[in-house]
Write a sequence for this structure.
């Protein structure tokens, strides 16, 4: 085994840089997880302030991809973001952030009720 020694200040600096890299990686994973999350039609309509009919029209015209599970439509957050960027829905980024925050809150509530029945 080989032992390497260096000054404590250099070690602290190295650890600080490693912590910064770690925080960045974790934040990117969380962002990616959010983009892959699925939200239902009700959430999309409520937080983007659009009607069910508008969402139905987007589905019919194949302008948004979705999945149907047991008669309920679900959309990826990344797909909703794409719709906003392409101006298919005229809402601000703030509305999307409301949707994401509320989705996170709902997921946490479901997880806590599953852990503590």
């Amino acid at each position: 085994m080989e032992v390497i020694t260096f000054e404590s200040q250099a070690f602290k600096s190295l650890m600080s840089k490693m912590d910064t890299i770690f925080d960045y990686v974790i934040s990117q994973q969380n962002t990616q997880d959010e983009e892959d999350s699925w939200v239902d039609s009700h959430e999309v309509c409520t937080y983007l302030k659009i009607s069910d009919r508008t969402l139905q029209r987007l589905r019919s015209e194949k302008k948004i991809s979705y999945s149907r599970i047991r008669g309920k439509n679900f959309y990826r957050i990344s797909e909703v973001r794409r719709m906003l960027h392409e101006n298919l829905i005229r809402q601000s980024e703030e509305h999307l952030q409301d949707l994401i925050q509320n989705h996170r809150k709902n997921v946490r509530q479901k997880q806590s009720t599953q852990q503590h029945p």
